[in-house]
Amino acid sequence: MAKYGQADQRCLLWSNILDEIVVFGVKYYPPDPTKVGNELTKYMLCLQLRKDIEENKIECSFGVQILLASYCLQSELGEYQMTEDYQKKAINYVLMDNPSMEYLATIREAHKMLNQLTNTEADVHFLDIVRKLPRYSFEFFEGEVIDGLAVTFGVGCIGIVIYLDSLRMFRFTWLKIVKLSYRGLHFIVKFGQKGKYTTQTYRMKNQRQAKSLWKRSVDNHVFFRLTVNLPSRKGILNTLKTDQSLLSFKQTSYSQDMNRGITNNTSADTDLRRAVLKVTQVPVDVFVEEISSHDNFGHSLVRKCL
């Protein structure tokens, strides 16, 4: 953007009308995007996830990337048809910058096997695979380096995850988190159930990272704990009352499918912004969670293409 004009008549002029002014993105990723009812919303999720894969925010293996790219082609171009401009169109949906000819040929063979899939079905297959990838829905923040190993904190739809040198070590689910706070370089989590609570504190790379992690965590914590009551309309006379009630929220019990919110401890909301003065260090159980394998159709397709 450039400024020009007299001192009393300043104007703003875009240096290039093709430059992006506003960029939209997904803020809250659903735990299971395949269950989203609106087809347009599903497609928007696909667009965001394609961008995340291209920018390496979501990592996947070579075989999985080929499978995902083939679903993108099926969704955007329909059934495979060898035309003169096929290669030119396909290069926009291969989830990679400057792909090799071998890579494009492998994706083309995978695309041939997806005949009879509709655009919507291709999007559902794409979403079902991406949601099982380890870094789906996560935004990452840098922690303190310990013994030469980088500590990273991820905030996503399932909770807060801690990585030690790219290896996932701990997880705090939104179900168990009671209070989130930060003080200086320290990020503090209070968690537990049924009156048995534990507090953990972690040192971040700098105060800015600590505050950003805290703000993002509180934002997701509130979002995934709340649900909206949508009363049924019984007549025209109830329209005003119904519209006003759409703005009311209430806390409900946490659903196992993680599509609804949690907690009966309403006092936790008012205490989220208070710093914790006394921190008790208690080790958290280490867990290893293996990502679910993809469907047999996807495995057989990759084996045939490679």
UniProtKB/TrEMBL annotation:
Recorded hits in CDD domains, A to Z, give: FERM_B-lobe (cd14473)
Kindly give the InterPro entries that the UniProt entry links to this protein: FERM/acyl-CoA-bd_prot_sf, FERM_2, FERM_central, FERM_domain, FERM_PH-like_C, PH-like_dom_sf
One GO CC term of this entry? plasma membrane
Residues annotated as transmembrane: 145-164
Pfam families noted in UniProt: FERM_C, FERM_M
Record keyword DNA-binding present: no
Which residue spans adopt a coiled-coil conformation according to this UniProt entry?
Answer: none
Q: Name one GO biological process term.
A: actomyosin structure organization
Q: Which domain of life is it from?
A: Eukaryota
Record-annotated FERM domain positions = 1-228
Provide the alphabetized UniProt keywords: Membrane, Transmembrane, Transmembrane helix
What is the protein name for this chain?
Protein 4.1-like
Name the source organism: Octopus sinensis
Organism taxonomic ancestry: Eukaryota, Metazoa, Spiralia, Lophotrochozoa, Mollusca
